[in-house]
Design brief:
single chain, alpha/beta, Rossmann fold, 6-stranded parallel beta sheet, 12 strands, 56% helix
Length: 500
Amino acid sequence: MRKYYHFAFIILMFLGLLASCSHHEQKYRIGVSQCSDDIWRDKQNSELQIGAYFHDNVELRFAVAYDSDERQIQQIDSLVETGIDLLIVAPNQVSTISPAIDRAYDKGIPVIVFERKTNTKKYTAYMGADNYEMGHLMGEYVATRLNERGRIIEVMGLKGSSPAIERHNGFREAIAEHPGIQVVATLQGDWTEPTAYNTVKQWLNKDKGAEKIDLVFGMNDRTAMGARKAFEEAGGPLPLFCGIDGLPGENGGIRLVQDSLLDASYIYPTHGDQLLQLAVDILEGKPYKKETKLMSALVTQENARVLLMESEEIMRQSYNLEQLHEKANEYQAQLGNQRTLIFVALAAIFLLLALLVGIYMYYLQRARIQDERMEMEREQLDFYTQVSHELRTPLTLIQGPLDQLLRTNDFRNASDEARELFTIVRRNTHHLTGIVNKMLDAQVGTPIQEMTSAQVDAITVSHPIAVPAAATEQDEDAPTVLIVDDNADIRTYLRSILQG
């Protein structure tokens, strides 16, 4: 029986292995190291997550450094230690984060640098917009907007970050081609609105000629809005304000341009879904570009409304996609539960079948053993019967002649001692014959007559047959008897009895 339980256990193990293997797929863990936390990166993170919806085998692990070099270095090292298959990183500054990137790359982890550049060559791919071109196009727009003449202020991004450096270089080179445009001040910011507000406010308090400023260029929309608040508090005519990011949404640059809070912005593309696809291509060994430049566009009063409508539609579709993904996850969870129940049910059915087969085989085995036991008992009984018959024949040949001898004159004339001995022999012979007859009665279930000289016609004669004498010298009234027995002594003895 144990072997059938073992068989059932093997079936259960096979079903469990089948259930686990049916969903087996290479799982990729991608670490995302963001240098900062803002609405631009929130949008990009959302796009990365949406991109992951199309790759069930991708797990994203996000880390935000909040503009801290030390924190970002620690986070990159931590992501590597936890075991990631690829690193996506937006370096806070050009040089400070490079050692952490090098350590990850040297451990065989592919590295994608996005949005911001680093001075290390140890990376697998780069994806981002052309910040120099953004700055240059914004400089040309400013010159055109001011009719080639005016005073402007530039509010920088984080010092040492590649977007700030490249946007500044592009902007200043474009402005340099228009002598009528004067850059009154280049103020240092850090991409945040509060810092831009404080920096511009301090400058306004020092420079009483602020009313002469025609335009403020903030290197992102938040910086431009911080500068606007400082000018609004200072009073007087407001200059024009331009930024970069051009995000959709309630507080995004496109809405700010449409509401005339900003004169222009420049869409800085996030393309998180494209970024994730690049990561998957690298992990799966597919062809990919080493350098990917993202396209961008200028946002002005003329196109802000259309761009906003398009962006809001994209956001709405993204929201719908997220809802669909959540529902798909729910359905997938339900399907997984149903699949588990099905496997459990199948396992129970197989176990029950195995148990039934085991019980059936067990009873077959018992029946076979019972048949073998009965056959053995039958053989023993046959042997026992055969032995009993073999004993009865010589006992008959002893008992019959002995009884016949005791009725002769020789016995009557024998001495008392001889008669006593004959009597003892006769008594024990009868006793032994009774025992043998009882043994035969127990075996065949029918009484066996005791063989005596008076009942000789009832023993060992299977089929007494009357044989008429054809032509004989005997008395025609005397019967003719056919004696049938396989023992010669029995035949001789019976002939001696019957021949008279």
